[in-house]
Write a structure and sequence with these properties.
- This protein has about 425 residues and is an alpha/beta fold.
- Helices cover about 40% and strands about 15% of the residues.
- The protein has an 8-stranded mixed sheet, with helices on both faces. A 6-stranded parallel sheet has the order 13-12-11-14-15-16, with helices on one face. It has a two-stranded antiparallel sheet with strand order 5-6.
- The model has no long low-confidence stretch (mean pLDDT about 95).
- The chain binds nicotinamide-adenine-dinucleotide (NAD).
- Nicotinamide-adenine-dinucleotide binds next to α4.
- The site of nicotinamide-adenine-dinucleotide (NAD) has 28 residues, from α4.
Length: about 425
């Protein structure tokens, strides 16, 4: 089989490494974060979709070697870059992708394949990664080594559409590169989808995320207006979704979070602005609406407490969920964290329960982390559902809470108010 190197052992890189090891490749997982590598080496997973058993099996079979030592990058046949692509001061930060490229460049041998999986704007693979590999290896792309882009579509917590069953877009800078990239993914996923160059593959990923971002913004703005008009937006969306064609339902909520929706569309708007001098208005509008949803949640909560003769200051508020997505422990860019910050800023006594979030969050110093139980529920002036994890006992919650503000439309009852 093939020597596979995965650079970046995160939500994307680790599941890919596990899958590659399980089909028989010899996989090195390289990461600069020594604490993550130590966890992996000890058989501990910090990514929901990878179990400790799976990890331990791959390590003991000698198929997976986690390492924080760059010399472990030597001898790869296929290297995949899965490092972060955040925003820094609102602008794309490709430093992690570029440093990954610099690390693996000297180990790139003739005949090897380099694949970028990190989400980025169209042109990244050819304009930013390729030159660094050429420079560090002394080789020529398309002549001595292959290079391409394949976006990740991983959906943490989704048991139906897994890494293996979700079709994977593949691309290369030329025919040989496409062939090499496709040949690798054909060993790990059920279906590969070919596009003509890395730029189309890079754009495809950004279209997917921008589509979600814009549609979520649409229903969020609708939810605000429908509430003021006295119309049940949730019922209206459910009714619209009975149309068997030309409509896809999206759910309102307290905002968007995670590593993708609040960030990726900005990569696209930045590229459009940089290359064409024009504004990508849909992205800007969606950003504006979605990023203000936590303010709207705090405002609605303030009105609800006011109805009960209570100021926010000093009110005891129990938040259910800190993760940005149900049934996951990822609180990065989570709107729930922003809601907590706003309420703390108004002087509320904020408590939060999230059985999935184990890594530290930005509100740990000001918010008391608790387990949901009768005592917590009955002593809260308001209980707010921000992330509708299946692990919460909703019957208990609705029967004990005095007032329940449901941002996910999970419950009904006299004491329940929906977003
Ligand atoms: N999380 C998702 O669901 C998801 C889905 C699709 C695409 N993506 C994209 O995939 C990329 C990776 O995202 P993620 O969620 O896996 O990130 P992550 O933060 O979970 O993991 C990235 C890892 O890369 C490591 N790293 C950073 N610089 C490095 C370097 N120079 N060399 C080696 N390792 C390095 C970090 O220590 C970290 O462990 C991003 O571009 C993201 O937008 C993420």
């Amino acid at each position: 089989m093939t020597n596979v190197l995965v650079v970046g052992m995160g939500y994307v890189g680790l599941p890919l490494a596990m899958r590659a090891a399980s089909v028989g490749h010899d996989v090195v997982g390289y990461d600069i974060d020594e604490s993550r590598i130590a966890l992996l080496a000890g058989g501990e997973s910090y990514v929901e979709d990878v179990t400790a058993g799976e990890l331990a099996a791959a390590i003991s079979a000698g198929k997976f070697r986690p390492s924080a030592d760059s010399s472990a990058c030597a001898n790869f046949d296929v290297a995949i870059i899965a490092t972060p692509t955040p925003l820094r001061d609102g602008l794309p930060d490709l430093s992690y992708v570029e440093s990954a490229a610099r690390t693996l460049a000297p180990y790139t041998r003739p005949g090897a394949t380099v694949i970028v999986e990190s989400t980025s704007y169209p042109g990244t693979t050819q304009e930013r990664v390729l030159p660094l590999i050429e420079e560090g290896s002394g080789l020529t792309a398309g002549v001595d080594f292959y290079i391409g882009y394949s976006p990740e579509r991983i959906d943490p917590g989704n048991s139906i559409w897994t890494f293996t069953t979700t079709p994977k877009i593949v691309s290369g800078i030329d025919e040989g590169s496409l062939k090499a990239v496709r040949a690798f993914y054909d060993t790990v996923v059920d279906e590969t989808v070919v596009v003509s160059s890395p730029r189309e593959a890079e754009l495809a990923k950004l279209i997917e995320n921008t589509f979600r971002h814009v549609n979520i913004a649409l229903v969020n703005e609708l939810a605000i207006f429908a509430h003021e008009l006295g119309i049940d937006v949730w019922e209206a969306i459910r009714a619209a979704a009975t149309k068997p064609f030309g409509f896809m339902p999206f759910a309102p909520g307290p905002g968007v979070g995670g590593h993708c929706l609040p960030i990726d569309p900005s990569y696209l708007s930045w590229r459009v602005e940089r290359a064409l001098g024009r504004n990508f208005r849909f992205v800007e509008l969606a950003d504006d609406i979605n990023s203000h949803m936590p303010d709207y949640v705090a405002h609605r909560l303030m009105l609800a407490l006011n109805e009960r003769g209570l100021p926010v200051k000093g009110a005891r508020i129990l938040l259910l969920g800190l993760a940005y997505k149900k049934n996951t422990g990822d609180a990065r860019e989570s709107p729930a964290v922003r809601v907590a910050q706003l309420l703390v800023g108004m002087g509320a006594q904020v408590r939060a329960a999230d059985p999935h979030v184990v890594e530290p969050t930005a509100v740990d110093s000001t918010v008391t982390r608790v387990h949901v139980g009768p005592e917590e529920l009955t002593s809260a002036d308001a209980v707010v559902l921000l992330t509708d994890h299946d692990a919460f006992d909703y019957d208990e919650i609705v029967s004990q809470a005095h007032y329940f503000f449901d941002c996910r439309h999970r419950l009904s009852g006299a004491n329940v108010e929906a977003l």
